[in-house]
Structure formats: C-alpha cells, structure tokens
Amino acid sequence: MMKGHDMKKSDEAMAWWREARFGLFIHWGLYAIPAGVWKGVENPFIAEWIMKVFQIPVKEYEQLAGDFNPVKFDAEEWVRVAKEAGMKYIVITAKHHDGFAMYDSKVSDYDIVDATPFGRDPMKELAEACRKEGIRLCFYYSHVQDWHHPDALGNPWDYPSGQELTVYNWEEEKQKPTFPRYLEEKAKPQVRELLTQYGPIGLLWYDTPYDMTKEQSKEMTDLVREIQPDCIVGGRVGNEVGDYEEMDDNEIPAAALDGDWQVPATMNDTWGFKKNDHNWKSTQTLLRLLVDIVSKGGNFLLNVGPTAEGLIPQPSLERLAEMGRWLEINGEAIYGSKPNPFGSEFDWGTVTVQSPDGTNPARMYLHFFDWPAEPFVLDGVRNKVTQAFLLADTSRQALNVAPEYIENVDHHRLTIDLPAQAPDENVSVVVLELDGDVDIDTTPAQRADGRITLSAVHADVHAAGDGTGPARHKGVVENWLDEKDWLSWRFKVLEPGTFDIVVVTAEGGYHGESQWDGGHEITLAVADTKLASTINADERVYNPRCVYWQDVLSNVGKVTIKKAGVHTLEVRPDKIVTAWKQGFRLKSVKLVPRP
Ligand code: FHN
Q1: What is the 3-class SS of 520-585, one letter each residue?
Q2: Is there a contact between 243 and 237 (Cβ–Cβ < 8 Å)?
C-alpha cells in the first residue's frame, strides 16, 4: 500500500469532483486594473501576465494595490452565478504569479486586506456564500512563480538570476539556489493559511510547476494532505504527485481517457480581465466543449475574469446563464456520468453514460451537435434498447429504434428515427435505455455513410524500437520518434469499394500557438496495397472540440478493398521529423469512400 504523498485520493474523496463535472475558475487580482493596457500599450498576452510582459518593476506594480477598491464585489452574487450555471465548485486565484494575496495573509502585507482601500477579505465572504449554497470553494495558488518575491521564479528584471529570459521562454526558467527559502517563507505558510482560515477547501490548484523537483512537489502535496486530507491536490503541483491530471490550458484530449482529469478554459482569450478582449466563444461552443470534455471523462473548469470593480463581465454572465438553462434540462446526462464507451470522437456529437445502480438499467445519452437529416444510424451497440426518447421531451414520447445484426461481419447496428427538428440548437440529447450495462463493440467499423475512422485510441501500438514509445497520450499517439515503431488496426468493412485515405494529425501548443510537425514519411499498408507518402498539411480543419488547435489532414492515396470482412491497416514510418519533440502525433486514419 502506498503511503503519504504517493497515495492518490480514494474514490470516496474524489466522488464529489467526479459527480460535479463543471466548475467556475476565477482569475481576479490587481491586473484587473490595467485590464490589458499599460501606459497606453496593449498587452499582447493574457491579462494577468501584464507585470511580466512589460517588466513592470515591483515598486511600480505595487502601486496598483492603492487603487484596488472593488466595491461592487458581491460574493453571494458570484456564487449564485456559478450555481445557476450548473457549476458545483469555484476555483479562485488566492495568489497569482504577481505575488499579491487576494485574502488576508499574515505572511506578507502584500494582500488585499492590508494593502488596498477595499480592506475586505473576499475569500472569507466567498467561503460563507459557498457554504450557504452548497458550492465547494477551491483555491488557486501560484507556488513557483511569484514576481514579487526575490527568491521565487519569474522576475529577473527586479531580481536578476543570471539567466537571460524573455517573457515566453518559461520552459527554460530555472530555480535559483535560494528558491527553497521562498517555498518555506512564503508559499508553504500561505497555503497553510488558505487551508486553515476558510473551512473545508475542495481543491488546491497549484500552477506552473516549472522545474520543481519531485521532492518539492511532494512537499506541497503533503502540506495539503496534512492540514485537509480531503482536499484534492491539482495536477499542476508538478511531477505527477497531484490527485488528477490537469490538461494544458484550453486543451481537450482527442478521445476518452482513463483516470481523473480536467480542462481549464477561457471564455475569450484571457484569464484575468482584459477590457479589449471581445473574442468570446459562443454559448454553443462552450456547451459543446463541456459535453465533449465530460464525454471523454473529464471536468470542465471554465474561467471568468472579474473587473477591478468586482463585476463578472456581462458576456460571461450571459453565457453562464445559458449553459445553466441547458443543464437544467440535460444535467442528467452530465453530472456523475461515465465517458463515451465507444472511445473515439464522432462527427455528429458524442456519448455519455449513466450506469446501473442495481435498480436502474444503463442509459446512454447521444449528444447531437449536428442534428441528422436522415434516420440516425449508430454502430456497435450490442445491447437491446428498451426505450428511446429525447431528454428535453417531458412527455417521454418513444422514438422508434430498429436493431439490425449483420452476420457476415458480426456487426450490430441501430437505426433511430428522430423528429425533423432538433430540440435544442446547441446540443440535443437522445436517451437510449438499455437492457443491462453498456455493451459496445469497439472494433472500428464502416458506418452507414461508408466512412471508416481508425482512431489512435483503437490502434495496436507496436513498440518495436527501443521500447520507449510511441505512447497513447491525450487521445493521440505521440512521442512517436522511433521509425521502427508502428501502428495497426483491425476494422470491419461492410460495403467494399475504393477509398481515399487521409491521415489526421493533431496540432498542439500554448494559447493558440501552433506546434505541429509535418514532413514525416510513411508507408501505409492495407488490403495488399502499399502507399508511400509524406505527411503534409493538405488541409487544416477547425476542430470545434479543441477550438485553438486544428486537425491537420494529409492525403495519402487511394485503396480498393474488394471484400467485406475484417481487414488490417498498418502505418509504418520511414522518417520522422521532430521539431517539437512530440514527433509524429497521429489522431486517426480516415477511409472515405469514392462516389
Ligand atoms: O500562467 C498561468 C496563467 O496565467 C493562468 O493562470 C493559467 C490557467 O490555467 N495557468 C498558467 C498557464 O498555464
């Protein structure tokens, strides 16, 4: 049995978080005053980084505290907004990288109670409001970067460290020998305050671990374990010693993943308030992100950046209210749900599941982003469907479901008759009640429209090289650096014919920056045909599930498959290009029938 920090949270301690699925992130601090503009110059980066972007000296940035008076702040109102949005927890910046404590700290006077005319402790007010409303309060704490502290990371303009740093090269930022002093004198005592002054805290959300040693990450985890054993430790404590995995900002994995994980996401392109950022995602986009993340087994932590007056921006309020209205009707398909049992993404939407609890049969929820014009065909469900209806339809009018078994390829297919009109313009949910627990055949199969998608999650990975990779990570195969490694899929062909083959690779990056490697040379083998090609960006397709990064399509050639049945497709690289260290990041191979 593992001990201390090596022991992940029990299922019992994670239960509320798995049930919750949707939380509110709040980035609020002194940076809300400049709101993205410093001395008339626009900050091209996220609002809360303004001090670093303009290398504002500590003495000058500190002056902002004297002007911080968010008299319109109303903790009860913020909690009401979260609750009405259908959110179950709030994570708020108790201290961001600028080092300013947004609560009453005895460790440093650089805090909202001692240094501002406001003089109130918003965390205390939020803790009370959350308790009343049954919302879990959680704290964000920047445990490595503190631009106000001479020993912490991130501020070489006031406290030179000998490193030549630009704003954006944080991956290369290294601890100074005095860093442990910051941990002992500020970070740990402040985390202790946060865990002792505000009652039970749901989650401690550390950030930007940089080059924390494993021992240091464990110390920050142990601190939480010691004071509030039930408090979940966020994945960005570093070195994988948190209780769940935090995805990169706005990054959504390409498939359902095992384990607990979360996506922190912006509503526009900033976390802290930026007066000139009007690039708001629509409610539809946000709802689809929520549904998609939950269907892959994750939590969605959606951000707002309140103003220096203490108000959540109106566009955020509108979107949250609309999401709440959708959840009021469709929440059954979200809260505590299990991930898409098919594993990979569908073009039309996605799937969540509620499993039997002994009395109820399993329910499968089909979340439609695109409402089908024709009867909808779902492949691979071995269960009998006992009932089908629209979740939004309170009369529970039955939908007709016709099952079919295609014997020669051992394939199950359901055809569902749907009304002409989608019940919801954003996401419409169809409920399939099953005869028992979900029983899905995940062997990739040709769909009714003739297409075949072979996803990375369903590939057999052959680590024939030095044995270190490639690895399935975040729903793609990545870290594919060794040309001896290869992938294969077995898949069912129902209607033989000629297919165009397209290899889909995935972009990565930070805040929309594209990191994508092309130029890999591969040989693809299927049905006695071998196709040699180079992975190029023949087409880039907007990926609504991962707004900031595109799917990059590369045409490989065509193949004729003459017989129905189970076939195999192999992808073997001849040359891999590795500019971004991730090498060949393969999401899927698509076979598209020729007309
Ligand atoms: O640098 C921070 C950033 O300001 C923001 O707080 C995000 C939220 O996930 N975390 C860091 C970057 O990943």
Answers
A1: CEEEEEECCEEEEEECCCCEEECCCCCCCCCEEEEEEEEEEECCCEEEEEEEEEEECCCCCCCECC
A2: no
Which residues are registered as beta bridge partners of 344? Answer: 255
Q: 488 CA to middle of ligand 1, Å?
A: 37
- Ligand 1 pocket mutation pick from 249, 261, 548 by most atoms within 8 angstroms of CB: 249
**For residue 44, with 0-12 CB atoms within 10 Å meaning exposed, 13-18 middle and 19 or more buried, which class applies?**
exposed
Q: 537-559: per-residue pLDDT in tens? A: 999 999 888 888 899 999 999 99
Residue 572: name the closest of 559, 589, 550, 553 by CA: 589
Q: Which residues pair with 445 in a beta bridge?
A: 492
The dihedral over CA atoms of 104, 105, 108, 114, expressed in degrees to the nearest 10, equals 20
Whether 271 lines ligand 1, by a CB cut-off of 6 Å, is: yes
Indicate left, alpha or beta for 44 from its phi (over 0: left) and psi (-120 to 50: alpha). alpha
- Residue from 373, 369, 325 nearest 351 by CA: 369
For residue 248, the ligand 1 atom closest to its alpha carbon is 13
Confidence check: pLDDT of 503 > 80: yes
pLDDT-derived band at 584 (thresholds 50, 70, 90) equals confident
Q: Is the CB of 207 under 6 A from ligand 1?
A: yes
Percent of the chain residues topping a pLDDT of 70: 96
Could you tell me which residues come within 8 angstroms of residue 493 by beta carbon, excluding any fewer than 6 positions away?
409, 446, 452, 561, 563, 564, 565, 566, 567
DSSP state of 170: G
Classify 478 as helix, strand or coil.
strand
Q: Determine if ligand 1 sits within 6 Å of the CB of residue 208.
A: yes
H helix count then E strand count, the chain = 12, 29
Chain position carrying tokens 């039997």: 356
Among residues 70, 59, 61, the alpha carbon closest in space to that of 113 is found at 70
| Nearest atom, ligand 1, residue 49 CA | 4
Cβ–Cβ under 8 Å, residues 94 and 123: yes
Instruction: Tell me the C-alpha distance between 161 and 175, whole Å.
Output: 9
The residue to which tokens 């671990």 are assigned: 209
Instruction: State the distance from the centre of ligand 1 to the C-alpha of 382, rounded, in angstroms.
Output: 43
Q: Establish whether the linkage from the previous residue to 341 is cis, with ω within 30° of 0.
A: no
Task: Take residue 69 and report the two structure tokens written for it.
Answer: 């008076």
